Amino acid sequence: MSEKIYSWGTNRPFNDYSSWFKKRFKQRVQKISIDAGFTCPNRDGTKAWGGCTYCNNDTFNPFYCEPSKSITQQLNEGIAFFEPKYKTQKYLAYFQAYSNTYGSLKLLKKLYEEALSHPKVIGLIIGTRPDCVDDEILNYLAELSQKYFVVVEYGIESTLNRTLELINRQHTHQESVDSITKTAQRGILTGVHMIIGLPGETDEEIINHAKVLSELPITSLKLHQLQIVKGTVLAKQYKKNPESLRLFHPEEYIDLVIRFLENLNPEIIVERFISESPLDLLIAPKWNGLKNFEIVAKIEKRMKELNSFQGKSYC
Ligand code: SF4
User: Fold this and answer.
1) pTM, full prediction
2) Is the dihedral of CA 21, 24, 26, 30 positive or negative?
3) 53 alpha carbon – ligand 1 mean position (Å)
4) Mean per-residue pLDDT for 17-30?
5) Structural domains in the chain?
6) CA atoms within 13 A on the CB side of 299
7) pLDDT band per the 50, 70, 90 thresholds, residue 86
8) Ligand 1: which of 98, 133, 226, 234 to mutate, most ligand atoms within 8 Å of CB?
């Protein structure tokens, strides 16, 4: 019997990013993380001090990524790391650490254009907060995206204002909706980052995030399980009262993610399913170093066994 091909053009039970990426670029393209020295309004006192309760930006900065180095130097070092493995590939500059639109337009232009002037860089991925963009910045990014591959990736984390307050995000869900909409309306690819298992959220509320996201003009989605990492407010809460935080066992997480996917608009491309904080920073949950690709394989296998697929319950 031939395997079912889904509306996104593959036999995988979810609309996966790697297939989309391969189709789009027809060659290997690697992201290179950049730390351009931004901060964030939730850390510098503009909105709050101390940041979101789960945040420790050291968890996602590779070794070559340091704000004291120029964008070009970080790109060269990142490329030198990947190039021996894959000679012909092109690269995307991934402005990842903190809020990468939190600066004057003049500064943003200088940094992004330095990255784009690198002969091997074909585009940008810009991670930011929904309250750190305005029309001027989005108009500029819309112009850039006519020429280059550009994704604006918003950390929205939850669709519940109650949760956003509890984790000290200092923005509302409506601000997320507004920025996603304004970005997509300008023809810019729009990514979203969500955390599964934030304090106080029930399974039904988590599934409901999928329903809410399904109505937004989102290109791609990253899901991350809640992780407690050193140097965060959550780490202190966890030490004081570990029972107050719900941490998933991988099997339980997989089941919940499958239900999430069943309720998700099949047009949304799913890029990641878990975080992989460095083990020396991770307090809990410890999943024996399980990698994203291993969880993806488990999710895919379980979905096939259950005859489940992205959007099965979406209407
Ligand atoms: S998670 Fe993002 S928005 Fe929150 S404190 Fe960290 S850098 Fe700022």
Assistant:
1) 0.95
2) negative
3) 9
4) 93
5) 17-305 (3.80.30.30)
6) 31
7) confident
8) 98
